[in-house]
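Case study 2.
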Amino acid sequence: MRLVSSAAYSDVALSVYVKVKALGLRPEGCQAKSSTIASYLGMSPASVERGMTQLRRPGPDGVVELVSDRRTLPGGTGTSALRTVRTMTRREAFVWLPVAAAEDLTPRQLRAYALIAFAQARGIALTEAELAAGLRHHSGRKAGQPISVTAASAVVDEVEATRWMTVQRRAGAQGRHQYIAHDIAPEARPDGGCVAIAVDAEAAGTSGSQEWASSQVGEGSGSPVGEGSLANKESPRTDSPNDERAFLSPAVGEVPVVEGARAVENPAYAAARTEADAGLALRAGGNNQPSPSKPETEKRSSRGGGSPRASYDGPQLAMRPHIYAVLEPVHLLLERVHSDFVVRQIAREVGRQLREGTDADRLHHRLTARFAKVMLSKIRDPGRWLLGVALPRWGCGYQDCEAGVLWSTGKDCEVCAEIVQDKAAARRRAQRIEQGLCLEHGTRPGSAGRCADCVLDDAMRNPAPVPAPREPEGPPRGSCGDCGARIIVVGRALEDGLCKLCREEAAALGAAVVATPAAAPAGQETCSDRDGTAPCGRKALPSRSVCGVHRVQELAGEVA
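Prediction:
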């Protein structure tokens, strides 16, 4: 799909790519000359060479689609080039195109056919505007821009004329066309194939020999020039039972009331209706063909001196019992709806919801609750209120949600609660923007454009880094091994790890022990000092005769 969706490749490059890839599937590969490929595609050799040049050059993403291996000798003789296409990856989007389509269709028609085939494979309802966005101008002032919808419609009509595609007019959702791309050549398909079926379907939907054409620019989903857009309400001429040209009622889910009915003016027409009414509804078993028309001289109204309107004595229409039972809370409003078209729309909407799985009790409760919340005098158009307010389901995408409450459990819907919170937050944000307040805290920002709460939150989220402790400059420091005082580890402190006072005291004590060896009893482990009048019972320090407490007292006295 790179060649189809990218604007960097012209239409002729797609046709050349399809033909070269098809020829490359042979055992010997693609060895055809440019003139030979041009004869296959019905184009000039210059156009084929231009397409090959685009395929050999790197695209916007740097990918080269075609590799050409030249086998010409320096003197100009030899064989044609061997051309191979790039191998596609498994995750790359692609579409299968018949080689015969590249030979029958022009390059622009082939590109439109590829877009339709890809949309058909993916199940995408393609519109003419989307198709026009995929077809671009490749020369002139509009090079690179999409073509108009009118031009795209003309391309669609040309492809349909070649029988490579069938267009089912207004057969899709919302009056869209349905495009069916065929993968078999027109001459290989039987005459009674899908094309004939599509033509019959179109002929059944028209009342004359008028040819269909794609819609024009600016006309939306309507018909071609002069026919306007699709009708959004029933014509009065098909709403009257006296109009014999009218179709039979297409209302689904309605049953006829035939008991006690008298014969109508047209016995053949009455017999046809009686036979049709024997079915499930008034669709008459698919017989929607109009009856013979009335004379043009007959008037439908008695105004202006014309003949009075003939009274209708045939059977009247009625809803199915289960649909009428569901609408019981709003029977008062239903009686005030005077348009048969709107009544049928209401019945169809109720029937659709019941077919899709909505419980009758749930729909009955919905109508009761919504009708109880409005004054009857406020409802000016009962039909519009029933179709637009009473019948639609309110809530999120969860089918069990009924106006924010789960129908099966009676609990609040969490999805709706989140939606309400999001909307409230959006309104609060818009209000704060309008008032110039902080969007997060609602306070007045300072001169720097930020409020105090924002600054505090930033400080809490991103605290200031704690400075690492610095080592003091100078020589290394340590602790005395005797008294624990902080000392500078230099000189003799490197040897014994003592401060000056502890070193001198140790030297003096050692000299006293050597002079009087019997002065200190051997094996003394307790302090020799006294606590008041009693001897101290603490353990003496190593190489000291006193404990740590009395040693500190001695040092404090010496310092003093």
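Residues 412-461 form one domain.
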